């Protein structure tokens, strides 16, 4: 449990908050004093996470739909009065296929959630931050946005785009006291990744491969990522904006 209360009196808005990185970040923000709006397309999951938090609010949102995002942001503001921190985290991986075999529908779905959705959340949350004097946004990119990866072209396209969007928005709103950064995690041991490993032909070999994927051995946990998100969103990082921070055990240093 963190000893600091860096988000005391602040409101955090977390997308993809029903599980994995989003749930871990929501719990971390709450443990440091924030009231947290947990937004996810998984309504039941959002309710479960929000129910574990003091004054948590569950919101159903389809981040690929601008009207849905606008409505979720409005509900959070109506409930709490403001939004100070955003973890812009909702995303999907999509199919793992060579580009020429990829269905167009899959491309559009991944781009819509991982790309357009990040823009929609920023658009409506920044408007609220401008009204109340500023805030901090952390977007979820990936090591796949910083390096070439095979067979996940829609995902790499969207995650690289998030890095560019983070930089441009950080410059646009720096004078308005809004900081915007991104994280670029490697493979993280979330329930989704655990299920993927368990359904592999050789689960033990898959787990071993993941543990040796980065120069640092082992697999980061969702709480490891949440700690970095909390740092970037806090006043401890008040002079950091426009950056993408890998959480990758040295993967991108090679």
Any overview of this molecule?
Helix 3 packs parallel to helix 4 and helix 4 runs parallel beside helix 5 (153-173). The chain has 254 residues and is of the alpha/beta class. Helix 5 links the parallel strand 5 (135-140) and strand 6 (178-185). The protein has a 7-stranded parallel sheet with strand order 3-2-1-4-5-6-7, sandwiched between helices. It folds into 2 domains: 11-185 and 222-242, NAD(P)-binding Rossmann-like Domain (Rossmann fold, 3-Layer(aba) Sandwich); 188-219, no CATH class. The longest helix has 29 residues, at 104-132. It contains 8 helices and 7 strands; from the N terminus they run E-H-E-H-E-H-E-H-E-H-E-H-H-H-E. Helix content is 45%, strand content 15%. It has helices spanning 20-31, 43-51, 66-80, 104-132, 153-173, 191-198, 203-211, 222-233, and strands spanning 11-15, 35-40, 57-60, 85-88, 135-140, 178-185, 244-247.
Strands, helices and their partners?
Layout (H helix, E strand, L loop, with lengths): L10 E5 L4 H12 L3 E6 L2 H9 L5 E4 L5 H15 L4 E4 L15 H29 L2 E6 L12 H21 L4 E8 L5 H8 L4 H9 L10 H12 L10 E4 L7
Helix pairs in contact: 1-8, 3-4, 4-5
